[in-house]
Design a protein that fits this description.
By secondary structure, this protein is mainly α. 60% of the residues lie in helices and 9% in strands. Strands 1-2 form a two-stranded antiparallel ribbon. Strands 3-6 form a two-stranded parallel ribbon. It has a two-stranded antiparallel ribbon with strand order 4-5. Strand 4 and strand 5 form a beta hairpin. The longest helix is centred in the middle third of the chain and has 38 residues. The protein is globular.
Length: 361
Amino acid sequence: MTLAIFLIIAVIVIAIQTAIPFLVKRTVIFGVTVPEKQINNPTLTSYKKKYSMLVSLLSLITLACYTLWVLTSNPVDEQSVLIGTIIQFAIILFSFSLYFYFNGKTNQLKKTWKNTETQVRIADLSVRAQDEMLPWYVYLLPILITIGVIGYTIVQYDLLPEQIPTHWGINGEADAFTEKTPVSAVSLPVILLVMQVMFVGIHVGTKKSGIKLNATATAASRIRQLTLRKYTSWLMFLTTFLLTAMFSFFQLRTIHPNLIDGTIVMTAPILFLIVTLGSTVAFAIKVGRSDKINIEETDSEVSDYDDDSQWVGGLFYFNRQDPSIFVEKRFGVGWTINFGNPIGYLIVLVPLAVIIFFSLL
């Protein structure tokens, strides 16, 4: 079971890491802004292919070795989980190392191009009316569920065991405990509530952030931005709802240990994992393919605004003049914080600090 779950996670992580160069915004390659006429440059295409080939090849060899080790050595679950986690982080670290290598190569190649086009920013005030992000108040449903679970826990405090579970193994059974106190009794749903508030903040911050269009491919960039915003809101709400269901499930089982059948206990985390990862993959593919259509002819004397100077390594965006709290990632599919806007720190770091605080109590 442990091996199967690890392989499911690892294969999905590898697939996403391998496909990233082909899913990002078409005018950004390895974190570098590329003029429209250079998008199909053979050298850049070879960089993307080499990255994907190396990541997939090394990852598959590593997974094969790990699988062979588990099948022949029969390690205990804790050992196989530890080694498996290290392998996943190693794959991600390797992919980022390759990213920085090709980021440097792309920057070097870009310096050899002679661009005489006028850089242009474009704004379309009508695009806001087409935004289909979910309204923020849909998050009130999981928040109300969590508040209800907290209230129920307080009412049923006497039924709680003297040792409160704080961690659950891959089979859904608790494997770490802390002493029963009024704080530890509600710590799990309170952490969930803080996460839900953070998700609301991220949703509102994303909705208020600017819709950035490409001057040389306005229709394609409009489609990508609207698709990214719409499906981000759906994915985030789905993730919030699934987390609410799983956390509430574990909390209610702590109060009523015999309420739920053991098979369901073991199945619930696996189901959560499969749905979450599957939705993430579907989201990445949907957004990644959205700007590969409707590519209009553009004026050869005009190019999109180059904001490479505001991106550190193509990963970290820092622009005090940009009021956007979140912006589209340059490597990966989704959003990243504008580190030049302090509101982003409040939305993400304050909830994380509260979660860490409750986890240490």
